[in-house]
Amino acid sequence: MPRIDGLLLDMNGLFRHWHNTGAHTSEQRAGLPTGTIARYAYDHPAYRLARVGVLTDQQWADDVAERLANDYGPATRDHLAPWREDRGEPDQTMIDLLRRIRTHLPVGVLSDCTDSLHADLERHGITFDHVFTSAGLGVDKPSPIAFHAAERMGLPPHKLGYFDDEPTFVQAAHTTGMHARLFQGPRAFVTDLRALGLKVTPHSART
Q1: What gap in Å lies between CA 46 and CA 40, rounded to an integer?
Q2: If you average pLDDT over residues 135-163, what whole number do you get?
Q3: What whole-number distance in Å separates Cα of residue 178 and Cα of residue 196?
Q4: pLDDT mean across residues, the chain
Q5: What is the mean pLDDT of the segment spanning 98-119?
Q6: What is the pTM of this model?
Q7: Which residue, among 37, 34, 146, has the nearest Cα to 86 in the 3D structure?
Q8: Which residues pair with 107 in a beta bridge?
Q9: C-alpha pair distances (Å), 190 with each of 88, 108, 174, 199
Q10: Which of 40, 207, 15 is nearest to 127 (CA)?
């Protein structure tokens, strides 16, 4: 008998991979030092505010542009489109696995991100039964409160499998009673699912 009745999965590192090509293009066009956009965007407190829903994704991006323009000149704004248009690279192997898994049980995504996730999922053609963002929940991982999203799936934690590529988040999910596993690639993912009682064929799953 299956040990789980549902899955809760991380997004980035599983279904989407970031290579920051858009940011690099924007930096080159604006004449910014490499890594400037990451520093202004993700290393600034405003990003945390957007990640827990205090700011919208657009408000945060506008704040980034404002600070860059103040420090590097107004023309910097004209070169930020590639950064904003880069929504990461979807992992087709995992997307295919997701489609087949959803024929057996419900699958939710729990991601530390701004309110942009719903639009990004549509853009990449990724469909989950439940979508939980830290912006929507008002709290981010590894807070145990973030994992209360499982309750909205109508399943007790001990009937849910959870996969994440961040060990700290896996540990946090484990404390809630979930069957938490570290994501180590599609093939290992399939092996772990089988151990949880879910039979899924890997097909062309990469390591």
Answers
A1: 9
A2: 93
A3: 11
A4: 94
A5: 96
A6: 0.92
A7: 37
A8: 7
A9: 23, 17, 19, 8
A10: 15
Query: Quick one: average pLDDT of 113-125?
Result: 97
Q: Which residue, 7, 179, 159, is CA-closest to 97?
A: 7
Tokens at residue 16, please? Answer: 């989407």
CA dist 162 and 7 (Å) reads 6
What is the percentage of the chain residues whose pLDDT exceeds 70?
Answer: 96
Whether the Cβ atoms of residue 177 and residue 158 lie closer than 8 Å to each other: yes
- For tokens 């639009």, what's the residue? 119
Helical (H) or strand (E) element with 168:
helix 167-175
pLDDT higher for 151 or 65?
65
Q: Determine the straight-line distance between the first and last CA of the chain, rounded to whole angstroms.
A: 27
**Which segments of 31-166 does DSSP mark as H helices, in order?**
36-41, 45-51, 57-72, 81-85, 92-101, 117-124, 134-137
- 107 is written with which tokens? 């699958």
Beta strand 130-133 pairing with 160-164: unpaired
Structure tokens at 144: 């145990």
Q: What angle do CA 162, 164, 170 make, to 5 degrees?
A: 70
pLDDT for 149:
85
Amino acid at 10: D
